[in-house]
Amino acid sequence: MFLCPGLPEFFMRANDFENLEAIFRSKETGFCNREAFTDDDLEAWKYTYAKPGALSPPMNYNRATMLQFYPAEFPQPILQPKTLYIWGQKDGFLMNEGGDLSIKLCKNARLIKIPNASHWVQQDAHKEVNKHIQEFLAESS
């Protein structure tokens, strides 16, 4: 579906963005912390994505990932900057092993796995995420 021009955008807008709401609120892909995503938040997303062309960039990202059938060759040397990677272990879109595989592409990386957080880890566990970011920045300065 993502490879068909305009179809995913149409799908997401259908029935007042009910599919977008399902992404954010379903048990499989939604927030773990239900208080982290209010009706007002949903309306803000709908408002933003209702603007002409606003849905195409995220859909294009998905299109690009669908086109890559073989793993990319990564340049050497691996990523040099010190890196903090925060991963929600209940991510309904990405495999848990993705975090482990990603840090292998970095020279100096730390992976923080947050057990009760979804793809939307920064909303599900904002205090924990902010704490890890602050610690990381303090170490790096």
Describe the structure.
This protein is mainly alpha-helical. The protein folds into two domains: 7-67, no CATH class; 83-140, no CATH class. The chain has six helices and two strands; from the N terminus they run αααβαβαα. A two-stranded parallel sheet has the order 1-2. The mean pLDDT is 90. InterPro entries: AB_hydrolase_1 (IPR000073), AB_hydrolase_fold (IPR029058). This is Epoxide hydrolase. GO terms for molecular function: epoxide hydrolase activity. Residues 14-122 form the AB hydrolase-1 domain.
Gyration radius, rounded: 17 Å
The averaged pLDDT comes out at 90
- Trace the largest sheet across and list its strands: 1-2
Low-confidence stretches: none
What's the helix count?
A: 6
The helix fraction, in percent, is 40-55%
Oligomeric status of the shown chains?
single chain
Proportion of residues in β-strands: 5-15%
Indicate the structural class. mainly alpha
- Outline the biggest β-sheet: 2 strands, parallel
Gap between N and C termini, in Å? 45 Å
The domain count comes to 2
The shape is globular
The ordered H/E elements are: HHHEHEHH
